[in-house]
Task: inverse folding
């Protein structure tokens, strides 16, 4: 019972209070929690929700009535109209219209009186807590130095956790007094920590060091501060002469220079305003007993800027100077003692410099955008950092000590019971939306805390800072417990994985297990529990951190496990309760219930793999663990004697031997495969029904004509038909019910509508390649589901079920009637639903036979409905099955072979097609891996993917993809080698040899990237040797001493190992023997390789310019290696309701319903904030889409504000040079231009171009878009020569990657022609415009608007050229006496430039007048009021249409 109370205290203080406080502080990203309500008639947009009557600056530095908030500019009431909207695409679940309870309580204003300040007004809500007012005061500029105080009303102290509505006498205008309270030791420590945080608030060192969820952001360097107040700022673009448009040389097209230093530009705000030289705990702590009796709590030692050394006592009454010195203890107060309740007040009296600098520091702190200050949910590490001066810091020192012990200072009891917290949050109620929000918020908060604690613990384990629970065992076998978390190393302990691949299997098992935990967690079955799991790679070791099942350490494993097997199937047990719980997960996870034999040859029923263990903890909960085989095996990497794969796999060299036997298919592949089979099932059923109908019709016709019975036709086909693309389109079009796969969804802002009709040859090329690669693929069924821009590739390898009619033609091919196809599919669907809904007694036998045949053909485990599941124990060594299940086992084997073939013959070609049509545009290794995983392709297939690209006819248009793939393959191979390289350096327990770690890492990087042929390890001089030994050890020979085997590595040896690793792991042949050869052969960049290996291996390097090409000295020295960071994998809990709202909003936008879409996206943002807090990658996507919608609807300032938040958030949660961040910079530049901030727009575009050059180089399709943007902006500011350089580069890239017939190329030609026209070079302008005209004419015809526009422009250019020639002739003829006609050299208008910017960025801009916007707002408010009065959305629609055109037709690319 105490544990439960303890947990609820944590839950209440950390989880319930946090969003309220953040909202109360007006931190953007935290909307009003769902149980709060605004004033009556208030719309929760970013301006009206804030405390409008309060004019004092709030925490974010804006006045309260202009504070920047997420979701600003739209309507954030959690109204049921949005629930209705969400139901449209919510997987068929009806939204509960009563889920959101709106509490109609009105806010009110109170006065706050703090000591030494004037009273000020604060608007509060009855649902807020007193604690939230505390937090506001601790962050306000004038009260931030107070931490130990109470709030009193009429002399009565208010309870911190009391809601304001429960306080008697608190009403409009009440005066709350801030009353200083006596300190305790804990309060004094909190105060010191808070003051330290205020002093460090502008210091980026925590972000560089990767602590406390701090991370870097550089946007403000390029925007000169906050863009949110753009309407009130002077528009910098109004005077063109003020704009410096010249980019640095390294950003210009064609530059080969790739500097590293500009990655982290110097932020002038980060130059330290030194308030104190030293603030630390005194060596005289703790106070002796006699001083405790005088109220002494702790002692501080400080050195002021004026070099005054002072000793301070923290007492119950406050802080004062004492007479102690470094070597003399005299705790008596000095004269004067300057007794002050706040440390800041004391120091302000002692040090004038402190007073001046602290005031200035706080002004800067509150002026920073809150998104630069808020902690991220998970730690983001930077792979580059400057050399930061290491200053004395008492809080950091204290944290290092408590971290070693695993204490959590701010939590009662200090150590947290992670398992209890993780499981209790799962048990919270989830019946309605507010309950689900609270539950998901709790789950997310605890998971992020657990991931942080597990990471700290893993580092402590590898650093040798935690004692093993089995210290007598060999190092590899040791296990650890720290802070109630269990840690184990990724080695094969006691030959547990001997038959599965030894250490390689032990290394792979934790990630498989984590994927299983993630999958079961997502299914979220009540009563079934998984362990908190985090996998950490650090210094070459893999550490698995898990929460501890209560009682597990008190008994043997054999006694604990009541379900599953502890020896891979030799002994197996089962349990009824576990079967019931796991059966609930079997359908969503596609796991088949099956029998296996135990050691007594008895059949044991399981609903998971045998490795999955069920343990009932001492808390009575049913836990499952060891979920490494949740998903079925990948037969392409699992050779089995006597089993042959399908021809599609055999042709590509499968099966291949892998390092371990734990290779599994990804969940995304299983989902895609089942979706593909469902489409096939529906088509076959429809075909047979159509055949039956045709047979019946012909029989009736024969009876009518002859009066005699018709001859018996062939029986219905029982196998899958082979269908053409045409018939597939016909059938799948009717299948509107099928849910599009999230894994296949790529809603990205980099696809452009203008290109919708182009590049068909690319698809043809891939189709030809598919035919070449997979011989029988043309005989396999092809299906493409098209739904709102979602392309689901489903052409599957089902040659064994394909059949042909007697004349050799496909049964559905030829002149099949489209309407018949659709009606047949609808009939099949209705039939399948009827059979699934009841026992099918009302269905005629022929129809039942149709479904039965279709079920058999696709491998369904049911004969009456579509239901595909996999047996994860197939081909598991040691697992035996009963004889009576032989047929089922054969079917399961075939299903696995089909899935393996589906991956290579469908999913890989699908990925390549998406890259060819630019719906997938990876820029670096991370985005390439994401693209593979979205389609269910494991990274071990990377070699196959590259081989496929190699053989594709359109290889030239995939050069960027091939280059990124080669880079990823090389750096992954290097990472594998680096892992073992580090393990040879030191062992975990033997006093770890860390003194040479930086030398070892720099030597490895030299061997990997430097052109210096004789990279020799420079062992660091031993700093701690005695004089006697010094002479002997001065010149140490590499490899001559202990733990220096790493020093013998040479560049040629490393590259041989990389080539060997590429062949053995990825089955890909690399043609290279050195870094220089790789760069030459594959067009890679060494700086890009450095970034990739640093991120993958967790290396942080000094940010400076590196000379990779010097052949006289190595590139890196040991001083260049600053740190090694952990690489962490963990579960990411999702905000399910918010995600459904977001998807619904996207769907509405894609249908053209902008306003409804905007409302739903705002709802999603509100809910995301409730669950995740202010910072999360999904909130970033939400803000990006909102900004795009604001921009389309003409609200440019709001678009700018939302996009600024998106950029800041992307930098903070993804990284400053992540590809998504680059995209966000591009969008922000567009909105800056639209707001007249031309100089800022150019800076942002130059920044984006620099980042892209660093990440992937210049030769990338996305660079064409970026250069077109830059060229257009430069054209607008009349920098024509510079503009041409960028636009001609964009033209060349578009020509290469989109082909000579591309509409993008035509647009590029037009943009170049416009610049030449501005330069009066009409001949060149005509040449380019003719090229564009030819493309338009050939692609869209002469009648198309674009072709006509181009034709008109050609006429205009011809006229101008003729006029110019006449003028020149006149000058030549008559000299200075010539009468010259004035020529029209018009500078481009900003409106025309903006129009072109919109076109190239995929936006059809829809300007709405102010009246339209007002009508829109009024209409939305009217609908909300009617909604509250009980009218449904349907009634509203019937009552009156929207005053604006409800559906705006557009061709828009929404991300």
Result:
């Amino acid at each position: 019972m105490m544990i439960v109370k303890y947990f609820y205290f944590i839950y209440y203080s950390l989880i319930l209070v946090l969003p309220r406080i953040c909202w109360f502080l007006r931190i953007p990203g935290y909307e009003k929690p769902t149980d709060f309500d605004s004033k009556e008639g208030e719309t929760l947009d970013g301006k009206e929700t804030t405390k409008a009557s309060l004019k004092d600056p709030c925490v974010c530095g804006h006045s309260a009535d202009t504070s920047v908030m997420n979701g600003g500019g739209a309507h954030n009431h959690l109204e049921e109209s949005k629930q209705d909207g969400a139901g449209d695409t919510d997987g068929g679940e009806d939204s509960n219209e009563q889920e959101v309870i709106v509490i109609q309580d009105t806010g009110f204003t109170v006065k706050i009186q703090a000591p030494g300040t004037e009273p000020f007004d604060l608007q509060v809500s009855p649902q807020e807590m007193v604690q939230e007012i505390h937090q506001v005061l601790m962050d306000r500029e004038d009260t931030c130095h107070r931490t130990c105080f109470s709030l009193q009303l009429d002399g009565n102290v208010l309870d911190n956790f009391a809601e304001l509505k429960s306080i008697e006498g608190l009403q409009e205008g009440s005066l709350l007094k801030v009353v200083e309270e006596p300190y305790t030791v804990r309060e004094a420590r909190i105060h010191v920590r808070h003051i330290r945080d205020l002093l460090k608030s502008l210091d980026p060192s925590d972000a560089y060091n990767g602590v406390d969820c701090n991370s870097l952001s550089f946007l403000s360097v390029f925007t000169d501060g906050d863009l949110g107040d753009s309407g009130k700022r002077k528009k910098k673009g109004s005077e063109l002469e003020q704009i410096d448009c010249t980019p640095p040389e390294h950003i210009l097209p064609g530059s080969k220079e790739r500097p590293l230093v500009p990655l982290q530009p110097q932020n002038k705000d980060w130059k330290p305003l030194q308030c104190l030289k030293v603030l630390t705990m005194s060596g005289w702590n703790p106070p002796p007993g006699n001083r405790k009796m005088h109220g002494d709590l702790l002692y501080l030692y400080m050195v002021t800027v004026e070099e005054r050394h002072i000793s301070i006592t923290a007492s119950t009454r406050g802080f004062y100077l004492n007479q102690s010195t470094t070597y003399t203890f005299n705790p008596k107060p000095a004269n004067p003692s300057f007794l002050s309740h706040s440390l800041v007040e004391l120091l302000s009296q002692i040090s004038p410099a402190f007073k001046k600098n602290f005031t200035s520091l706080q002004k800067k702190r509150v002026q920073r955008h809150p998104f630069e200050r808020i902690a991220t949910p998970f730690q983001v590490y930077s792979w580059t950092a400057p050399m930061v001066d290491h200053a004395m810091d008492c809080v950091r020192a204290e944290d290092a000590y408590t971290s070693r012990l695993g204490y959590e200072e701010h939590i009662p009891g200090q150590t947290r019971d992670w398992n209890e917290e993780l499981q209790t949050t799962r048990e919270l109620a989830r019946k309605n939306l507010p309950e689900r929000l609270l539950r998901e918020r709790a789950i997310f908060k605890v998971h992020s805390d657990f991931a942080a604690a597990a990471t700290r613990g893993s580092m402590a384990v590898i650093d040798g800072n935690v004692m093993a629970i089995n210290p007598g065992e060999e190092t590899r076998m040791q296990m650890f417990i720290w802070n109630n978390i269990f840690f184990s190393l990724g080695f094969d302990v006691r030959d547990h994985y001997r038959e599965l691949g030894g250490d390689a299997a032990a290394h792979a098992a934790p990630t498989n297990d984590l994927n299983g935990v993630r999958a079961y967690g997502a299914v979220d079955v009540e009563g079934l529990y998984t362990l908190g799991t985090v996998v950490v790679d650090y210094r070459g070791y893999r550490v698995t951190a898990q929460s501890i099942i209560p009682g597990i350490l008190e008994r043997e494993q054999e006694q604990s496990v009541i379900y599953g097997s502890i020896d891979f199937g030799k002994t197996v047990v089962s349990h009824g309760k576990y079967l019931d719980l796991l059966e609930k997960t079997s359908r969503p996870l596609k796991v088949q219930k099956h029998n296996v034999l135990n050691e007594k040859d008895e059949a044991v029923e399981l609903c998971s793999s045998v490795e999955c263990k069920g343990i009932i903890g001492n808390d009575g909960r049913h836990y499952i663990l060891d979920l490494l085989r949740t998903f079925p095996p990948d037969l392409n990497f699992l050779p089995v004697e006597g089993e042959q794969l399908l021809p599609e796999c055999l042709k590509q060299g499968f099966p291949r031997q892998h390092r371990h036997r734990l290779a599994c298919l990804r969940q995304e592949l299983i989902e895609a495969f089942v979706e593909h089979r469902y489409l096939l099932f529906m088509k076959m059923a429809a075909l047979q029904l159509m055949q039956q109908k045709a047979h019946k019709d012909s029989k009736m016709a024969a009876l009518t004509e002859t009066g005699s019975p018709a001859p018996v036709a062939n029986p219905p086909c029982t196998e899958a038909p082979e269908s053409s693309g045409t018939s597939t389109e016909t059938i799948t079009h009717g299948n509107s019910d099928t849910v599009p796969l999230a894994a296949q969804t790529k809603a990205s802002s980099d696809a452009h509508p203008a290109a919708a009709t182009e590049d068909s040859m690319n698809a043809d090329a891939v189709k030809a390649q598919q035919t070449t690669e997979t011989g029988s693929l043309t005989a396999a069924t092809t299906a493409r589901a098209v739904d709102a821009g979602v392309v689901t590739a489903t052409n599957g390898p089902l040659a064994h079920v394909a059949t042909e009619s007697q004349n050799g033609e496909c049964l559905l091919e030829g002149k099949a009637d489209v309407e018949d196809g659709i009606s047949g599919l609808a009939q099949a669907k209705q039939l399948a639903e009827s059979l699934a809904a009841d026992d099918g007694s009302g269905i005629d036998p022929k129809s039942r036979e149709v479904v039965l045949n279709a079920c058999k053909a696709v491998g369904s485990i049911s004969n009456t409905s579509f239901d595909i599941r996999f047996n994860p124990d197939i081909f598991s060594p040691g697992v035996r099955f009963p004889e009576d299940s032989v047929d089922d086992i054969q079917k399961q084997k075939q299903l696995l072979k089909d899935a393996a073939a589906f991956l290579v013959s469908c999913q890989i070609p699908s990925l390549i097609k998406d890259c060819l049509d630019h719906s997938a545009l990876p820029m670096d290794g991370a985005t390439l891996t994401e693209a593979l995983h979205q389609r269910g392709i494991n990274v071990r297939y990377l070699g196959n993917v590259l081989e496929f690209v190699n053989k594709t006819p359109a290889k030239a248009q995939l050069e960027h993809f091939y280059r990124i793939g080669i880079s990823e393959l090389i750096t992954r191979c290097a990472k594998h080698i680096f892992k073992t390289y580090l393990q040879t350096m030191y062992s975990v327990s033997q006093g770890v040899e860390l003194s040479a770690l930086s030398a070892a890492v720099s030597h490895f990087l030299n061997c990997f990237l430097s052109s210096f042929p004789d990279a020799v390890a420079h062992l660091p001089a031993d700093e701690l040797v005695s004089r006697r030994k010094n002479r002997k050890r001065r010149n140490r020979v590499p490899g001559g001493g202990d733990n220096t085997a790493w020093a013998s590595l040479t560049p040629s040896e490393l590259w041989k190992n990389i080539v060997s690793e590429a062949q053995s792991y990825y089955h890909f042949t690399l043609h290279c023997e050195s870094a220089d050869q790789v760069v030459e052969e594959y067009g890679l960049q060494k700086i890009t390789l450095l970034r990739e290996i640093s991120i993958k291996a967790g290396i942080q390097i000094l940010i400076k310019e590196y000379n990779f090409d010097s052949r006289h000295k190595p590139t890196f020295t040991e001083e260049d290696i600053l740190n090694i960071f952990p690489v962490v994998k963990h579960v990411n809990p999702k905000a399910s309701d918010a995600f459904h709202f977001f998807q619904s909003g996207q769907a509405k936008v894609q249908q053209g319903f902008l306003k409804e879409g905007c409302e739903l996206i705002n709802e999603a943002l509100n809910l995301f904030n409730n669950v995740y807090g202010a910072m999360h990658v999904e909130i970033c996507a939400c803000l990006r889409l909102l900004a795009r919608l604001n921009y389309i609807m003409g609200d440019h300032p709001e678009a700018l504000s939302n996009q600024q938040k998106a950029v800041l958030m992307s930098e903070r949660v993804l990284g400053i040079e992540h590809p998504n961040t680059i995209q966000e910079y591009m969008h922000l530049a567009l909105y800056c231009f639209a707001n007249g901030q031309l100089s800022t727009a150019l800076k942002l575009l130059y920044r984006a171009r620099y980042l892209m050059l660093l990440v992937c180089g210049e030769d990338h399709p996305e660079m064409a878009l970026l250069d077109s943007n830059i060229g257009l902006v430069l054209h607008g500011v009349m920098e024509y020569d510079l503009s041409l350089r960028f636009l001609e580069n964009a033209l060349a890239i578009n020509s290469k990657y989109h082909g000579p017939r591309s509409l993008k190329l035509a647009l590029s030609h037009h943009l170049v022609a416009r610049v030449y026209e501005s330069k009066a070079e009409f001949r060149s302008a005509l040449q380019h415009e003719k090229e564009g005209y030819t493309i338009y004419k050939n692609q869209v015809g002469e009648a198309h608007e674009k072709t006509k526009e181009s034709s008109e422009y050609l006429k205009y250019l011809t006229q101008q050229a003729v006029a110019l020639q006449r003028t020149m002739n006149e000058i030549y003829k008559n000299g200075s006496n010539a009468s010259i006609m004035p020529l029209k050299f018009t500078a481009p208008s900003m409106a025309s430039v903006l129009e072109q910017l919109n076109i190239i960025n995929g936006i059809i801009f829809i300007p709405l007048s102010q009246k339209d916007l007002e009508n829109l707002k009024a209409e939305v408010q009217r609908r909300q009021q009617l909604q509250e009065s009980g009218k449904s959305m349907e009634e509203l629609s019937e009552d009156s249409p929207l005053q604006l055109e409800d559906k705006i037709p557009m061709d828009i690319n929404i991300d």
User: Anything to note?
Assistant: The first strand starts at residue 108 and ends at 113. Residues 1370 and 1376 are 10 Å apart (CA to CA).
